[in-house]
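Summary for the steering committee. One of the milestones for this cycle was to obtain a three-dimensional model of the protein with tryptophan bound, which we needed before selecting residues for the alanine scan. The sequence and ligand used are listed below.
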Amino acid sequence: MTAVVKKRILTGDRPTGPLHLGHLAGSLQNRVKLQATYDCFFIIADYQVLTDHIKETDTIENNIIEILLDWLSVGMDPVKSTFFIQSRVPEIADLTMYFSMLVTLSRLQRNPTVKDEIKQSGLHHISYGFLGYPISQAADILIVRANLVPVGDDNLPHVEQTREIARTFNGLFGEVLPVPEALVGDVARLPGLDGQKMSKSLGNAIYLKDTPVEIRTKIMSAITDPSRIKATDAGHPDICNIYQYHAAFNQSQLSDIEKSCRQGKIGCVACKQIAAEQIISCLRPIQAKRAYYQDKITFLKDIVEEGNRKTSCEGKKTMSLVREAMHFDYQKIFCS
Ligand code: TRP
């Protein structure tokens, strides 16, 4: 009998705050499914927070707790998968050091996501760590020798950078590292309340932990089809945020909503009320689980310590392969 080896996945989040509906529709629901088929490693990328939040290090620990609660509440399962914290697996920083010699400065400066982030943040004096974070992300992925990396399209350049690093390493030192592939979800990105990408920094997000009152208030403030003045005007669901929320959380009524909107038979207020109640009911079981785990801090700690240990163990295997291939395992007198 041949043992079936599951392919390995690595993905994760930065602990910058609680997760929102954009994360749920765009990545979390997919992760829950992937757990059945793949050996999943989920990273809480705390070093990555330092790249653009260096003055808010006092918030990171709480944000890690928020992310763990969000992960557990949506059904990511620490029995099937491995949850770990980037800074607590020292092999990642170790591997980053080697990888940093394989990437040119101009290659880092060409990364389109990094370029966008620099533009958006208005950062004029970016740090060495910020420019280099795609290298550290490559180490996150390759430390467990992952085959697949589920990400949103903003992270695709980082997976491409990881593939280049793996190929360069293998070209120089022999076939040691897998060349991982990105897994891009098929769901459209969920817009925020103002129609831009849903994001914490834009202040347009609905969080998984928002109360029904908060959700109703937020939805009521959302922008809809701007050409619709009166409730009886014909609407254009294709350019309406709220329609996107129906598509993500109210499949069963979607075609009715679309028809009524186009014919001017349902106004934006009524349509928003339906969307809000639908989101609230989708979040109800998630919030019940969140409440259950909320005061089980020791349980959270145990999950992460076990995940850190397991990832570190994989990391040690990777580092010994890497060092051996690079003749950095000094065989003469500095060995062991
Ligand atoms: N850059 C990712 C984000 O912003 C987080 C992340 C860090 C990540 N390391 C990773 C994602 C490795 C996939 C694989 O959300």
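Key point for the committee: The chain has two domains: 8-189+297-334, 212-291.
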